[in-house]
Each structure stands twice: as C-alpha cells, then as structure tokens.
Amino acid sequence: MNRTPTRKGTASFFSGIRTHRLTPEELEQIADLCRRYAVQAVRISSAQQLVFLNPPDALLPALRRELHLSDPPALRRHRISLVQACGGRDNCRYGVGDSQTLGAAIERLSFAEPLPAKVKVGISGCRMCCCESWIRDVGLIAEQKGWKLLFGGNGAGRPRIGDVVAQGLSDREALALVEKCLTFYREHAKNKTRTARFMERVGIDALKQQVLG
Hints:
9 strands, alpha+beta
C-alpha cells in the first residue's frame, strides 16, 4: 500500500484493485475504515487508487496500516502500470469478449527488465470501447471474430490513436501478442519514452515485422 501526492484534504492510496473490481468483503472493510477514521467519502480513480476525502492527518498512519489490499503491479516498472477492463460479455448485454479474464491475465505479465515507461492497457468487450482502448498504450477491443489489438495510443497532451496490430485473435493469441509487443517496446524504446512516441519513431510496419513474422 503506497500513498501518492494529492490535493489538500485528500489521501490517495494505490490499492491493487484488479481490473476495477472489489469484493463485498473489501467494500465492507473500506466502509468500516471510513466510519472509524472520519473519512467523509471515498472514490475509486481511473488509475485504480482509493481516494479518501478529508481524513484527519493525525489518523493517516493508522489508516495506512489497516489497508490490507494487495500491492498493485503499477509500482514496479517490470509490470504493466494499469489495466482497465469493462464488465465484458458476462456483465454487459453488449459484450462479446471476456474482458475481465483477459485483463487478469495481462495484469499477471512480468518482464525480466523494466519497461521504458508506464504502460496503460484498455480492454473493451465490444466496439462501444468503454475502456478507451484506442488511446491506451495497449488496446484490445472484442469483435465477433475475436480481439482487435492496438498499440501506441495516448490520451495525454499529445494524443495519438493506437495502430492496429492484428484482428480476429483468440484470448490466448491476444495475450501472447501483447507480451510480444511490449517485449519489442522494452528492447528498443529509450528510457521514459511512452509507446505513442516510440511508435511515431519506429512505425507500425517495423512492429508487425517483429511480432507477427
């Protein structure tokens, strides 16, 4: 559990909320903590952090000790920083792909060497693209014939639409190809270079030649 800088009156903690899901037991734990530590409200940010609003500063050390959710992969550069996954076919009437299962598998990916920069993944179970897959470092969109894989998207100050790497992928093929793309990125990108700027330099053809050949 790690605290990150926030505005005055808030305390934000990396909580390891896997693909934006909390169990009933974890929700009960959070509610109990809010009552006992005089937290006015709590929200889950898009970066999968728990943001406690207006907790008393004197109680923060004790609050941190009681938060026993698992450590997130985001804090280690040899892991993916953030995986956003929608409810998928089991939880949404529009879903055609199992976003949650694939998201959990991608979260477990680990690399021998640190990634050059943070990597965000968006997994959308249909073409509605609720998880903004087109503007993530790695994007996956479920279609009737399988997953579409995108690489090199970015939604920050210099936005970029991700390049289409492949389509019609099974869950296993999508996972393997994500790992290949990130390995190529890790081996050839300069330190602190996000995938969007990396793809502008090397181009989609070079990536495809390495990961699809």
